[in-house]
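Our platform keeps sequence and structure together, in a single record for each protein. Nothing more is needed to write down the fold, since each code stands for a local backbone conformation. An entry from our holdings is shown next, in its original layout:
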Amino acid sequence: MPELTTEAALNILTGWLQDNIDCGSEIIFDNDEDNTDSAKLLPRVEQALQNVRDLHHLQLLQQASTD
């Protein structure tokens, strides 16, 4: 089984949250006051995924400049 990277895990989570939205899931992830559902959580996870990708890209650029 291949290693589960942060990027791969965030991709899985993004897909799962999108499926929840598409199916009209009423899962609440925190409490009845904040009501953080998949639709509220998805943009944050997508931003985290982009941050991980950006960091990976910067690491590759740094490695290339030292080679």
About this structure: The mean pLDDT is 94. The helical segments are 6-23, 38-66. The longest helix spans residues 38-66.
